[in-house]
Design goal:
This protein is an alpha+beta fold and 328 residues long. Helix content is 29%, strand content 26%. The termini are far apart.
């Protein structure tokens, strides 16, 4: 018993449903042919594409059978087939039902195969993967057919991305992890591993973490405020780069040409507000306060750097917390 499920005959064709139960093929059989791209379905799957010649002696634009009726269409006119023509179609269907069902499908890994016996595939598919690259059907999604780009690796396990079939040596289950400190990711057959020598891994991890400590140092020092007594009142001054460069420039001018720098000279403390007069001694006091704070922050950075350098485990280095131990 072979069941004819359904198919779309395409533009200008008809959709026929029925079943063949071993009697005359026209008893409940559906067959549609449209132009040169018709498709005969057996057991719900495509069996073969066939042309009007030479399989059948008569020509037609479209051919369809429903129950005991068999018709051909020529130039949009419907004609019933005579007995000899019906016998030809009958013999064609019987022959096709005895041949292997040829389908497009995938194996258990989701790899696509075109025009192969239905017994050789795990799942029949109606769509095709993109023409370039390596693709696998997501077998967990049904009935939707979702093609997923493969993660290809070469003979040494290096990641190639998605390249054409035959241009890779193995497929990884995932893309390699994002790089933290320049890892040389290689696929082991089970997971991604860093192929760098241990000393190189340690050095790279330390460099990255020490750089993180320095960035933390710069960020915290730049946000730091020093309090300096100016005009009989403690006032705030920033350690950010702009403020430090301004204070350094004023003090340099005072040291080289004190007569050219007004004394007092207006300047605005941190936080804005009105300018107030600052003496030459005030500017020197602000500079020295910032310099002292910078030394304290650098000592904290150096402690972090030494602690990181002393570690001998890559994961411990990466986990090292650079956000603690800073001056307030």
């Amino acid at each position: 018993m072979a069941r004819w499920e359904q198919f779309n005959a395409g533009q200008g064709g008809r959709i026929v449903m029925g079943r063949f139960e071993g009697q005359s093929p026209f008893q409940g059989v559906g067959l549609v042919y449209v132009g040169g791209a018709g498709q005969l379905l057996v057991a719900g799957q495509p069996a073969r594409r066939f042309q009007s010649k030479p399989l059948l002696s008569f020509e037609f634009d479209a051919l369809y059978c429903e129950q005991t009726l068999c018709h051909r269409v020529e130039a949009d006119e419907d004609h019933a087939l005579d007995a000899s023509q019906i016998a030809e179609v009958d013999a064609l269907i019987v022959a096709m039902l005895t041949e292997p069902v040829i389908v497009n499908g995938v194996d258990s890994t989701g790899k696509y195969f075109a025009s192969v016996p239905i017994e050789s595939v795990t799942r029949v598919v109606q769509t095709t993967p993109p023409p370039s690259g390596t693709w696998r059907l997501n077998m967990d999604v049904s009935p939707t057919e979702m093609w997923v780009g493969a993660h290809c690796v070469d003979g040494e396990g290096a990641y190639l991305g998605n390249v054409d079939e035959g241009a890779w040596d193995a497929l990884a289950t995932t893309a390699p992890p994002a790089s933290v400190d320049g890892e040389d990711w290689r696929w082991s057959g089970i997971q991604w591993v860093d192929a760098r020598p241990e000393l190189e891994r340690l050095t790279a991890a330390r460099d990255v973490r020490i750089a993180a400590a320095w960035a933390e140092h710069v960020s915290r020092f730049s946000a730091h405020i020093v309090m300096v007594n100016v005009g009989g009142e403690m006032r705030p001054y920033g350690c950010d780069r702009t403020t430090r460069e301004n204070i350094l420039a004023i003090n340099s001018g005072i040291a080289r040409a004190p007569g050219l720098i007004p004394n007092p000279r207006p300047f605005t403390p941190k936080g804005g507000g009105a300018e107030i007069d600052h003496t030459h001694d005030d500017f020197l006091a602000i500079y020295l306060a910032g310099l002292t704070a910078g030394d304290v922050f650098y000592v904290a950075y150096k402690a972090h750097k030494d602690a990181i350098t002393a570690l001998t485990d890559v994961e411990a280095i990466r986990a090292y917390d650079v956000t603690t131990g800073w001056p307030t």
